[in-house]
């Protein structure tokens, strides 16, 4: 009973074995993650166009629900950059940023995303996420990073700019650049420079001081906290808010409120597609982080249960003033490096953030938005990796086309069109490749029983025998290709008496392909040419036996191609088909 | 020069070799086809909701243009049943049947279809038609046959009924059934019965009289002409038109007029999708007829040039008062059986139809529409073949689902939704199958160098070595599946030291799969487990060598799986992974 329940409630599994050692590790990790999460949560809320407390709230209930339902021991769930950007893009279509409707729409988006994720998980449809090809995801994340960085420049410059695509953003920034607010710019640029130095230069410096590498790693993650503290103090001490530096201002003190999403049907239907895209992108990112971390400790991730965990987290966010969340890379790695042993570390982090929400929010009153923007810019630039273009180009033109289209469309037309186009293009290019399979005419390698491509090897052929090896499963998209190919070969004036299809690489023959084989068989029969198969795999043969094809076959099925050669040739070894 | 031009103008090829023998054969075939085409053309125009002369016109210019540009020697182009139905469905959305706008929209549809076909041909994209899987086409044709037969019942009953889906049609017929017009019903039922007898009973009867089989075949095709002649005479003699029997009435006498399609942008954009679907369905049907006939004489069909030929035919139809056309099965077979040697037979048929259009149209004034409806019903019922459901079910559940959905949606929601759903479903099911490939754990067959599935055969395994054979190409939709599978196997507490991926059935590794292999390699490396490949195919290996994968591989690439076994095991032969 408990075992069956434990499939849907992994907490029953690790909870029963929880001990003091794990508790100490988890508490330690929670303290470090909490400190790191406070500025990050505020910043991502800003990115999503929501009030700063939404970021904190989105880190509390979701993290607890994930601890109960999720399967990863180290994944930290909460607001992340790409999902925040997608949230802003989705809600920007239906409400004005900063309005009451905007926050309510964010709750609806989180709820829909949560329900979709749970439904996919219960139906065990996690594999659907596989239809996002890796290069498309990489292209999308890179383009999103560029978009996010561009969207934050207005806070660093201190100007009111807007736009949903890169061109619109740069246009709007260009129009306002002369209005740049000097004190804001100084804070923004200095914060950005400091954070870059922390990321690149602090670790070697700390290692030089003799610190252990892991401690140095963790300390570099506190950079944003230091930047936040210094700039907040500076604004407060110098009264820069009165000089026009935008600050976070009053953040409500208290635990996450109980909130009700907006259920207006027209809103829900408008948000359905964005919610689906956001769910899939969030899930793919989260699972790949979870798997990377789990692999290091030989732990297992159940992708379908992960859907349920992430779904529960999003539903939790919807009812506690948050917005869509997922497993974040940076926070999860810190959690793992800081020694988190179980999901309880997440629960302790949630408690830490609750304390912060109740007690520490007055401290961020003077926090300049430019500092938060700087933390976002520095964080997302690590996502930007245009080398995917070069690597895809070197490997495979089709993948390159999919990446390039995803990047250009995401930058030019927005995140939703970009990622949708990437998926459609991946599928189309895959089908296109499959529809023109590699077919080799093969001959016998002298003094062996092996058959190889007549164009690549010196092999024996017989003018009365044509042997074709198809290097692809036969299915509807390429069935007719084979029909045409054989018809073209037969129409040439060779003294052909037998055609053999060597099926060693055919993993499947679908019904369309079966009908094509029947058509080929009929046509060859009317020309008095035998049609034979060789090296057919077990499962394919099982299926053929369920049809009438083998009864009507004007030839034989040979176990090996060599058997076919021996049976069908008279030993004459001339070259004809190879001309 | 001529050779290059001959690729786009096949007439240059056969025209230069034309002689008196071919001329005699072609003239003979043309006479027979012309006689058969007159009632058929009138009937299909009726089905498309157009005036009867549109059917004749659509058989003249298109047949000449196809003779110039097409590659099939025997294909007869003109109105066909399914395309007529699709025309009626498409134009019914934008204009009232019988109105001026309706005929103009039919011209626009023909023009768009023609331009699309020519464009696909010039871009050599004929393979796109392959994405219609055979069972989807079969299901669609069957459902269309039922729809067409149902749509003609109103003419046989002599009632004004309508509807675009089977349910609407039957509903409307049910509401009018009590108004059935008796003389019309008598003509309709007797014609239908006669035509069924001609189809089933006449040939044995003629063979019994000692006629040659081919002559008997051709004579049975004249059934509709006989039915038309008798019923027309009956209406004229008995004055049945005055009693309320619907007749064809006055048909303009003369050559096809020069017509200009309607170029209204909103009309063209509404008709774009229907035109695309109609083009593809028409092309697929036409090419399969052409290939079947060409195969009998060892002739070749160039599908891309066929697109150009059919496209030219449709553009011709658009400017000469016709409507969308394609290569028809019945007329092509008659043409072939009657001995047509070259496309000139088509040109002679066109001349025959021109004579008919100028001289014979007064003769069909008293032709009852019920007779035409009967010829349609009898013709299309030969298209109806529900056995595709049984055959697909026996062979493969996924194909069955696609057929069933196509049939039900075509009958329930109309031809466009039906065929679109069939295409989408075929692709989705194919990807779904590919996304969960067959992966077998293999072991060594004792006293051999062969490796087989440990679940099916008694084989040797080694507890430190896990060998997986993937029976599918690795690409984005299944890459993560493999990642999860290996992670799950490694997380189990076996004393694993090596994982070997046997790639004998892997025809391709795309960029996503490469990244998955890199991720697997990284994870296994961190666990100190070797990762090896064996039996990698040449083209796959070429591609892997273009990436950095082989440099970082924590293991080796073995030529054969047996080499891997010899190198990686210590000879101990216990079973572990097979539990």
Can you walk me through this structure?
2 copies of one chain form a homodimer. By secondary structure, chain A is mainly α. Chain A folds into 2 domains: 19-412, no CATH class; 439-568, Transcription Regulator spoIIAA, CATH 3.30.750.24. Chain A is 63% helix and 5% strand. In chain A, the strands form 2 sheets. In chain A, strands 4-3-5-6-7-8 form a 6-stranded mixed beta sheet. In chain A, helix 3 (20-48) packs across helix 16 and helix 8 (134-157) packs parallel to helix 19. In chain A, 54% of the residues are buried. At the A-B interface, helix 8, helix 13, helix 18, helix 20 and helix 21 of A face helix 7, helix 12, helix 17, helix 19 and helix 20 of B.
List the helices and strands and how they pair.
The structure is a homodimer of 579-residue chains.
Chain A: H1 2-8, H2 11-15, H3 20-48, H4 52-57, H5 61-69, E1 77-78, H6 81-92, H7 100-122, H8 134-157, H9 166-176, H10 182-208, H11 213-220, H12 223-238, H13 265-296, H14 303-319, E2 326-327, H15 329-337, H16 344-360, H17 369-381, H18 387-395, H19 397-413, H20 415-435, E3 439-444, E4 451-453, E5 465-470, H21 476-491, E6 498-502, H22 511-526, E7 530-534, H23 538-546, H24 549-552, E8 557-558, H25 561-568
Parallel strand pairs in A: 5-6, 6-7, 7-8
Antiparallel strand pairs in A: 1-2, 3-4, 3-5
Helix pairs in contact in A: 3-6, 3-15, 3-16, 3-17, 5-14, 5-16, 6-7, 6-13, 7-13, 7-14, 8-9, 8-17, 8-19, 8-20, 10-11, 10-12, 10-17, 13-15, 18-19, 19-20, 20-21, 21-22
């Amino acid at each position: 009973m408990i075992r069956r329940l434990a499939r849907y409630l992994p907490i029953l599994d690790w909870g029963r074995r929880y001990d003091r050692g794990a508790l100490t590790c988890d508490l330690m990790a929670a303290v470090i993650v909490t400190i790191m999460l406070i500025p990050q949560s505020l910043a991502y809320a800003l990115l999503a166009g929501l009030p700063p407390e939404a970021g904190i709230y989105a880190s509390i209930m979701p993290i607890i629900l994930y601890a109960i339902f999720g399967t990863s021991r180290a994944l930290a769930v909460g607001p992340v950059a790409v999902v925040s950007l997608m949230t802003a893009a989705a809600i920007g279509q239906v409400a004005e940023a900063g309005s009451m409707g905007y926050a309510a729409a964010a709750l609806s988006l989180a709820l829909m995303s949560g329900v979709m994720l749970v439904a996919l998980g219960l139906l065990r449809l996690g594999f659907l996420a596989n239809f996002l090809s890796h290069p498309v995801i990489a292209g999308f994340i890179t383009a999103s990073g560029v978009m996010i960085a561009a969207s934050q420049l207005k806070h660093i410059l201190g100007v009111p700019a807007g736009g949903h695509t890169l061109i619109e953003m740069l246009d709007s920034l260009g129009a306002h650049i002369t209005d740049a607010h000097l004190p804001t710019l100084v804070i923004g640029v200095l914060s950005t420079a400091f954070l870059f130095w922390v990321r690149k230069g602090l670790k070697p410096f700390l290692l030089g001081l003799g610190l252990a590498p892991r401690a140095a790693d963790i300390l570099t993650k506190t950079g944003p906290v230091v930047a936040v503290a210094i700039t907040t103090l500076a604004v407060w001490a110098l009264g820069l808010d009165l000089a026009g530096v935008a600050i976070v201002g009053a953040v409500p003190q208290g635990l996450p409120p109980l909130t009700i999403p907006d259920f207006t049907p027209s809103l829900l239907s408008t948000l359905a597609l964005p919610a689906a895209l956001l769910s899939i992108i969030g899930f793919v990112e989260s699972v790949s982080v979870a798997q990377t971390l789990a692999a290091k400790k030989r732990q297992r991730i159940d992708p379908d249960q992960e859907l349920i965990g992430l779904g529960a987290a999003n539903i939790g966010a919807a009812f506690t003033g948050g917005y869509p969340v997922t497993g974040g890379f940076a926070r999860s790695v810190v959690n793992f490096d800081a020694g988190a042993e179980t999901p309880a570390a997440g629960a302790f982090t949630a408690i830490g953030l609750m304390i912060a929400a109740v007690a520490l929010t007055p401290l961020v009153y003077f926090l300049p938005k430019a500092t938060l923007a700087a933390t976002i810019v520095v964080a997302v630039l690590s996502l930007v990796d245009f080398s995917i273009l070069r690597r895809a180009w070197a490997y495979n033109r089709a993948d390159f086309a999919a990446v390039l289209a995803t990047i250009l469309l995401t930058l030019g037309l927005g995140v939703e069109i970009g990622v949708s186009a990437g998926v459609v293009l991946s599928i189309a290019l895959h089908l296109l490749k499959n529809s023109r399979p590699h077919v080799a005419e093969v001959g016998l390698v002298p003094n062996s029983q092996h058959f190889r491509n007549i164009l690549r090897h010196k092999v024996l052929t017989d003018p009365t025998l044509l042997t074709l090896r198809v290097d692809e499963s036969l299915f509807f998209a390429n069935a007719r290709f084979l029909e045409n190919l054989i018809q073209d070969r037969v129409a040439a004036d060779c003294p052909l008496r037998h055609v053999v299809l060597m099926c060693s690489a055919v993993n499947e023959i679908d019904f369309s392909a079966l009908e094509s084989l029947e058509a080929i068989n009929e046509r060859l029969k009317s020309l008095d040419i035998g049609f034979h198969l060789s090296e057919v795999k077990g499962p394919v043969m099982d299926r053929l036996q369920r049809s009438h094809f083998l009864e009507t076959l004007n030839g034989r099925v040979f176990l090996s191609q060599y058997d076919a050669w021996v049976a069908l040739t008279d030993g004459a070894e001339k070259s004809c088909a190879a001309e």
